[in-house]
Write a structure and sequence with these properties.
It is found in: Membrane. The chain has about 375 residues and is an all-alpha fold. The protein has eleven helices and no strands. Helix 1 packs across helix 3, helix 2 runs antiparallel to helix 10 and helix 8 packs across helix 9. The longest helix has about 90 residues.
Length: about 375
């Protein structure tokens, strides 16, 4: 009985031992398989992460070079727009006489009608000038240049973001705020009758209109004393009066000689011709003549003021183009930034997966060695 009992015990434990060894070997095999699978998966993740990092570096490098190229291109385009608008505006200023002559409205020399006439004239000119500039300076094509097209960044974004890319807007139009009403707000017309051989006209031929007006007017001495310009005008007027006085004496002497030689008929004829010329000019100074004078004065005044604002207007237009181009490229840059964020997120996911696989490898090795 004792022998049988010991044999049964030995047989029973031997079976348990064999079973335990089989289980241990099976666990080792599973751990080895897990370790090998983790290692293979880790290698794939490392390769994919490296590929994603290379892709991210490539996108950033290409975007940096593209940004520099676009900035230079935008600077060139804005400079071209500045020159184009300045040239077009100067051409429009040269055509001001034609534009003013095209204007038709009821004209009357009364103050109320003159203000209304000038307001309509300013409105007409601003519409024609803005229309001419818009026709000459159509810059919508600037927005479709190759460096700003979606195709320039399409290779840098993921397929999901490529569907969000859209072509730049072709409806952009520059606005030309000439503010002609403000520029010509202080325009004052002079449509009073002026005899071409009158004293004022003769003085104006020698000095400028402003100087003639001041020379013919009574001088007012300020508290600080006359300025250099005032003294110069007074000196010129004094010299002119002196010359005219001597000329008057010479005319009187010559007139006396002519009177004695040819008689009073020639003198009377000259005075009659002078009077007839005055009468002719006075009778022909009608509302149409006043309108022509006003248009000529306004043309000269508006041309002078517009020439002064050519740099400001061209710079404002170039700023509009700069903002539009910058915003267009900014939208494309945002799509590239989204693609970069996707790449960075994918790299983080792969890094976390690699860390988990490494932890799985360590645990499987430790569990296998303990067994």
């Amino acid at each position: 009985q004792e022998f049988i009992s010991q044999s049964a015990v030995r047989t029973k434990f031997e079976q348990h031992t064999v079973r335990a060894w089989q289980i241990t070997e099976a666990i080792k095999t599973v751990m080895d398989a897990i370790n090998i699978a983790s290692a293979n998966r880790k290698i794939c993740c490392l390769e994919e992460r490296e590929e994603q990092r290379d892709r991210l570096d490539f996108v950033r490098g290409q975007m940096s070079r593209l940004s520099d190229s676009v900035k230079n291109r935008i600077r060139t385009l804005t400079d071209d727009v500045t020159a184009k608008v300045a040239s077009a505006l100067l051409d429009q200023i040269h055509s001001l006489p034609v534009l003013v002559e095209e204007f038709r409205a009821d004209f009357s020399p009364s103050l109320e009608n003159l203000e209304l006439y000038k307001a309509k004239l300013v409105q007409h000119l601003e519409q024609r000038l803005s229309g001419g500039l818009a026709h000459r300076c159509h810059v919508a094509d600037c927005l479709t240049v190759s460096c700003l097209s979606p195709d320039s960044v399409r290779p840098l974004v993921s397929p999901s973001i490529q569907q969000q890319l859209c072509a730049p807007s072709s409806s952009f139009e520059m606005t030309f705020d000439l503010s002609l009403a403000a520029l010509c707000a202080d325009f004052r017309e002079d449509i009073d009758f002026r005899f071409s051989l009158g004293w004022t006209a003769l003085v104006t031929r020698f000095i400028c209109a402003a100087g003639a007006h001041r020379a013919l007017a009574v001088p007012e001495v300020s508290a600080d004393g006359p300025s250099l310009k005032d003294r110069l005008v007074v000196s010129m007027a004094t010299s002119l009066v002196s010359v005219s006085s001597r000329a008057s004496m010479a005319v009187l002497l010559i007139g006396g000689v002519v009177w004695r030689s040819v008689g009073w008929r020639v003198v009377a004829l000259s005075v009659s011709l002078y009077g007839l010329l005055y009468l002719y000019e006075r009778l022909t100074w009608t509302a149409s003549s006043q309108e022509r004078a006003l248009k000529q004065q306004f043309t000269e005044f508006a041309a002078f003021r517009l020439r002064a604002v050519v740099p400001v207007t061209s710079s404002a237009c170039s700023q509009q183009v700069f903002k539009e181009l910058t915003s267009t490229f900014g939208r494309l840059t945002q799509r590239v930034d989204l693609s970069e964020a996707e790449l960075e997120g994918r790299i983080r996911q792969l890094t976390c997966r690699i860390q988990r696989l490494e932890a799985t490898q360590r645990k499987s090795k430790a569990f296998r060695e303990n067994k």
